[in-house]
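Let us work through a complete example step by step.
Step 1: write down the sequence.
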Amino acid sequence: MVVHTIVTGGQALVDTLHGAAQLVKQLEDARFVVWLNPFWGPVALDGKTFEQMKVYQDIKKRIETVVNLPAFTDELFPQDIASMLNSRLTFKERVSQKELLEQNAAQQQKLLSEFQAALGKSQTAWSEQAKALAQQSLNAGLQAAQNSTALLLEEAARVNRAAVRQAFEEGVVRMEQALAVGRRIAWLSLAASLVALIAVCAIFMHVIH
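Step 2: predict the structure and record it as tokens.
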């Protein structure tokens, strides 16, 4: 009788090693095939491979062969195995489907190429439309900026005219006020001169008499 047992890497390494050793001890008349599965990590402990471990050295006389499974890095590999098992296919039947899968892959590649070509044409057309829309938007923005600038300049000119007119009017008012003050001073000076003249005349007449 030949018994197959699995030793996996990763966290389950110690447990599967112990399980394989227990099977060998319990089934004294059986020969064993050990499958090393590195899917969860390397089948190694403290830098030693399976064949270098003490567990293997203790039971190697009962082991018919050791099968090293490849370490698959393709994320789709577990899905492929699950699909095969769900379809109730053997490995041989699954491999026999290779030709059909290759034909399907070729058809899918052709469809993908046609789709990419159509997408490229569409992107070119979209790019031209996008450029035209961008130019229109730019022109509209520039025109709006020019209109806003013209309005601002017109408003600034209007404000400046109002400020100049107000300053001129205020200057005229100040000049009129200054002239009024000057006229008052002139009249007062004239009145003072007349009073002084009358006083001199009175003194002169008094001296004559």
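Step 3: interpret the result. The chain is about 70% helix and 10% strand.
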